[in-house]
Amino acid sequence: MVPVIQAARSPGLSTRLQGDTYIIENTRDTAPPFSLPLTLDCGQAFRFDQDHLGRWYGVAGDVLLCAQTVKERVEFYGVSADTAAFIDHYFDLSCDYAPLKELFCRRRPLRLAVEQFPGIRVLRQNAFEALCTFILSQNNNITRIKGLVQRLCQLTGQPFCSPLYPGRTFYRFPAPADLAGLEVSDLAPVRAGFRAKYLLDAARRVHAGQVDLERCRTLPIDEARQHLMQIYGVGPKVADCALLYGLYRTECVPMDVWMKRVMKELLPGGFPRYMRPYAGIAQQFLFHYARQNAALFKEKEPAAPAKDSLSIGG
DNA sequence: ACCCAGGTCGGCT
DNA sequence: AGCCGACATGGG
Predict the structure, then answer these.
(1) Is the CB of A191 under 7 A from strand C?
(2) Which residues form the HhH-GPD domain (predicted)?
(3) Residue A259 has what DSSP assignment?
(4) Which of A42, A53, A54, A176 holds its CA 20 to 30 A away from the CA of A307?
(5) Whole-number Å distance, CA A169 to C1' C5?
(6) Which residues of chain A between 249 and 278 are close to nucleic strand B, CB under 7 A?
(7) Would you give per-residue pLDDT tens digits along chain A (314 residues)?
(8) Per-residue flag: A151 CB under 7 A of strand C
């Protein structure tokens, strides 16, 4: 129930630190190991953008990450040994996605999603950050969520500098203690609207130990979900996001409007039992697939997707 | 101006 | 248990 296939022997990826550049390659073929834009901008993390050179950069944990795809390789810049270890963890590089994708591809609709967007990976984000950012996500669009998170970090997070971007200031995501003592009025500059009070309730409960995020890593999944849902403003969807993205509970499938549409059309019977432990990862492929093929799934009522290309069932 | 956005809450049946 | 409007804000 815990991890995904750990595959220490054949992770499918090789990594090496050359100077301060951390290079990640695919050991199986010449294809890129994973897609930076798909992984960083597919609606799981909200702190990454592209700079004027096209490099992806953003704060994760305590550090600024800056990366680019160069000739079938992913390169991270300004990387220390500690940062390299963090990258391994954050991008879950010890997890081999090949057998997972093979599993998913046994169902045709999932195969279409995986084949169209093979570079997606589910990140291992900080649990409190995942909880908070998905509290901010509710009834909101991704562009604006990124703005809210950015302003929250500027207002309450710890500032630091990076030699990668001289003269700029970056901000870590606030710790529970950074938020627990604040009032809704203090968060006004964030412009989070009705979500501000939810955010503060989460911070206070985590800070007070009333909510134990780490315990949710191992609790039976229904108990973990209920434990998080004691937070005012956290329902089943946000709880599942915190569990999947922040606590690596890969059996969780956050059901937002898009996933409801795509499941109804493509997997009306739900995920097959054999992929249930990793259904959250399959979800990431389906979620992106649905959004990128919005015209097929946006229809309110029947308007089934083109049965020609999206055959139902397996 | 209008609609919607990776939902949840409180108040109804 | 399930439906429905309100909720703050602003991007397209």
Answers:
(1) yes
(2) 136-291
(3) H
(4) A42
(5) 42
(6) 254-259
(7) 333 333 343 479 999 999 999 999 999 888 999 999 999 999 999 999 999 999 999 999 999 999 999 999 999 999 999 999 999 999 999 999 999 999 999 999 999 999 999 999 999 999 999 999 999 999 999 999 999 999 999 999 999 999 999 999 999 999 999 999 999 999 999 999 999 999 999 999 999 999 999 999 999 999 999 999 999 999 999 999 999 999 999 999 999 989 999 999 999 999 999 999 999 999 999 999 999 998 888 754 443 333 333 332 22
(8) no
Residue count of chain A: 314
Tokens of A118: 């093979």
Concatenate the DSSP letters of all residues of A193-206 into one string: TTHHHHHHHHHHHH
DSSP output for A88-125? HHHTTTTS-HHHHHHHHTTSHHHHHHHHHSTT------
Helix (H, G, I), strand (E, B) or coil at A16: strand
Amino acid at A188: A
Under 8 Å CB-to-CB from A45, ≥6 apart: which residues? A58, A60, A123, A125, A133, A245
A195 nearest nucleotide via C1' and CA: C8
Burial class (CB in 10 A: 0-12, 13-18, 19+), A43: middle
Say which residues have a Cβ less than 8 Å from residue A65's Cβ, sequence separation at least 6: A48, A56, A57, A58, A59, A76, A83, A87, A90
Sign of the Cα torsion A122, A123, A126, A129 reads negative
d(CA A242, CA A244): 6
**Beta strands A56-60 and A63-70, pairing class:** antiparallel
- pTM of the complete model: 0.93
Residues of A from 113 to 172 whose C-beta is within 7 A of strand B: which are they?
134, 137-145
